[in-house]
Design brief:
Its EC number is 1.8.1.4. It catalyses: N(6)-[(R)-dihydrolipoyl]-L-lysyl-[protein] + NAD(+) = N(6)-[(R)-lipoyl]-L-lysyl-[protein] + NADH + H(+). It is found in: Cytoplasm. Keywords: Cytoplasm, Disulfide bond, FAD, Flavoprotein, NAD, Oxidoreductase, Redox-active center. The protein has helices at residues 14-25, 47-52, 54-73, 88-113, 171-174, 191-202, 222-234, 328-342, 371-376, 392-396, 425-437, 442-447, 457-466; strands at residues 4-10, 30-34, 116-124, 129-134, 139-149, 153-155, 168-169, 183-187, 206-211, 238-241, 243-251, 254-261, 266-271, 273-276, 280-282, 315-317, 356-358, 363-368, 381-387, 403-409, 415-422. With 479 residues, it is α/β, with parallel strands linked by helices. It has 3 domains: 4-155 and 281-342, FAD/NAD(P)-binding domain; 168-278, FAD/NAD(P)-binding domain (3-Layer(bba) Sandwich); 356-466, Enolase-like, domain 1, CATH 3.30.390.30. The strands form 5 sheets. A 5-stranded mixed beta barrel has the order 1-2-3-4-5. A hairpin with a 4-residue loop joins strand 3 (116-124) and strand 4 (129-134). Helix 1 runs parallel beside helix 4 (88-113), helix 1 runs parallel beside helix 8 (328-342) and helix 3 (54-73) packs parallel to helix 6 (191-202). The longest helix is centred in the N-terminal third of the chain and has 26 residues, at 88-113. Bound molecules: flavin-adenine dinucleotide and adenosine monophosphate (AMP). Adenosine monophosphate (AMP) binds at residues 158, 160, 187-188, 190-192, 210-213, 244-245, 277-279.
Length: 479
């Protein structure tokens, strides 16, 4: 008879591996199954995030930004550079080394915490049994008291732009482009499209983003989205809104793309490379045997309640596989919550305070409700904004694009949302996320002492501005 586990987790992305570590910390006998293989065919943990997502994309964003800075931005500091060159192969090799470092790190964490890491494909049978097909094709059936499904997501494919891995690539292929394309097309001006478009724009490509929607960054606060578009356009990203791609054709080494504008007019463009970034979908192929009884929702996600329990007792699902934003940290927190629930603890996750970041330069970051959401809910509110152009540290760094916007309830002053486009927006928004988690008012944040000179003073001033008390800017009359 096979060993019995307290918990078996299928998938070792940021949702699954974090859940496995937390479960083992809580004394549960835990196994985590992963089917990802590296270029040498060796089993590897970390999922999308570490292998083809957050970490590799940020590595390329940082490399390309340093190149761009060395080439274009240092003159103002009195530093002259010439002959600055980029070695794309070295840049990609560095990225691959970092991936290896982090994916290998998970195996070390599993060992240190007593998680059994298994390489192969897991399938949920009935009665919380999991079939494991290892990478040599051997099949075993494992028993568990609880199963956590964490199989993640895949890029959405669209028939009008079939990925060939050469001239037309998805977000995974875009991390492997070996030379700077002269003209690069990107379908979808969402988070991933903007990040990958920025990488190649900085490296010298002429980048055109074709976005079907009329609204830029529709889920973001409108004011911040408008400001962001202005900044990205100034950087040279050619963002075409209301442009739905309807066809692609490969002619020689070129991709001919046709698209239809909202007014019905048909247009076309020719690119040397095309990246398709039209979103991601939950990945459930091969995960569930027919007899597992686990229900999906109408979008193909595993149907779960607030605590990530599926309709089958003892079976949970977390991360990109379930409703909510497809973000690594959202999945990790769900993983911790589920491990704690299984261990008999009271646990919950605050879905109202999940920060969201676009790692362009400047970054775009948000937490909580947008002004449009607060308005639609009919709540009375005040807004405070502050531009980085008036922040000493931002001026010293010559990094002054953008602003901080904080929204608070007009009656209670409780902070409802914070939206930032600007330098280090990701880290700044986290300060407000912490304040919100503790139920902070704008006044509380305004009364907090902030170091001078820092970028975070923009957060301080925006919080003060909510109640008409900003110091380094004339205040708008309070509503
Ligand atoms: P995944 O990371 O997709 O992991 C699922 C794992 O399950 C995979 O390793 C898969 O091989 C394995 N698996 C699937 N089926 C089986 C099976 N049957 N048996 C065994 N194993 C199985 N998010 C952020 O928060 N910040 C970012 O900056 C960010 N940048 C991104 C950039 C890019 C280019 C992309 C593509 C994504 C980015 N994301 C980012 C999103 C983030 O990567 C995902 O939200 C996150 O990886 C989801 O975690 P997960 O554990 O749910 O799934
Ligand atoms: P995200 O979900 O943030 O990664 O963004 C994906 C974007 O791709 C969305 O804004 C979609 O509107 C956009 N999109 C989807 N299909 C097409 C298409 N055929 N042409 C242009 N944009 C598209």
């Amino acid at each position: 008879m096979s060993e019995k586990y307290d918990v078996i987790i299928i998938g070792s992305g940021p949702a699954g591996y974090v859940s496995a570590i937390r479960a083992a910390q809580l004394g549960l006998k835990t196994a985590c199954i992963e089917k990802w293989k590296d270029a040498d065919g060796k089993g590897v943990n970390g999922g999308t995030c570490l292998n083809v997502g957050c970490i590799p994309s940020k590595t390329l964003l940082d490399s390309s930004f340093k190149y761009h800075e060395a080439k274009e931005e240092l003159g103002i500091h009195g530093i002259s550079t010439s002959g600055v060159k980029i070695d794309i192969a070295a840049m990609l090799e560095r990225k691959n080394k970092i991936i290896k470092q982090f994916t290998g790190g998970i195996a070390g964490l599993f060992k240190a915490n007593g998680v059994t890491g298994l390489y192969g494909t897991g399938k949920l049978l009935n009665g919380k049994q999991v079939e494991l097909t290892d990478n040599d094709g051997n099949v075993t059936v494992l028993d568990a008291d609880n199963v956590i499904l964490a199989s993640g997501s895949l890029p959405i494919a669209i028939p009008v732009a079939p990925v060939d891995g050469d001239l037309i690539v998805d977000s995974t292929g875009a991390l492997e482009i070996g030379e700077v394309p002269k003209r690069l097309g990107v379908i979808g001006a969402g988070v991933i499209g903007l990040e990958l478009g920025s990488v190649w724009n900085r490296l010298g490509s002429e980048v055109v983003l074709l976005e079907a929607m009329e609204d830029f960054l529709a889920i973001m606060d409108k004011g911040i989205a408008k400001e962001s578009k202005k900044i990205f356009t100034k950087q040279g990203l050619d963002i075409r809104l209301g442009a739905r791609v309807t066809g692609t054709e490969i002619k020689g080494r070129e991709v001919h793309v046709t698209y239809v504008m909202t007014d019905g007019s048909e247009k076309s463009e020719i690119f040397d490379k095309l990246i398709v970034c039209v979103g991601r979908r939950p990945f459930t192929e091969g995960l569930l045997a027919a007899e597992s009884g686990v229900q999906l929702d109408e979008r193909g996600s595993i149907f779960v309640n607030e605590q990530c329990a599926t309709n089958v007792p003892g079976v949970y699902a977390i991360g990109d596989l379930v409703r909510g934003p497809m973000l690594a940290h959202k999945g990790s927190e769900e993983g911790v919550m589920v491990a704690e629930v299984i261990a008999g603890h009271k646990a919950q996750m605050n879905y109202d305070i999940v920060p969201n970041v676009i790692y362009t330069h400047p970054e775009v970051a948000s937490v909580g409700q947008t002004e449009e959401q607060v308005k639609a809910a009919g709540e009375p509110y005040n807004v405070g904004s502050f531009p980085f152009a008036a922040i000493g540290r931002a001026v010293a760094a010559n990094d002054t694009d953008g602003m901080v916007k904080i929204i608070a309830h007009a009656d209670t002053d409780r902070i409802l949302g914070c939206h930032i486009v600007g330098p280090s927006a990701a880290d700044l928004v986290q300060q407000v996320a912490i304040a919100m988690e503790f139920g902070s008012s704008a006044e509380d944040l305004g009364m907090t002492v902030f170091s001078h000179p820092t970028l975070s003073e923009a957060v301080h001033e925006a919080a003060l501005a909510v109640n008409g008390a900003a110091i380094h800017m004339p205040n708008r009359k309070r509503r």
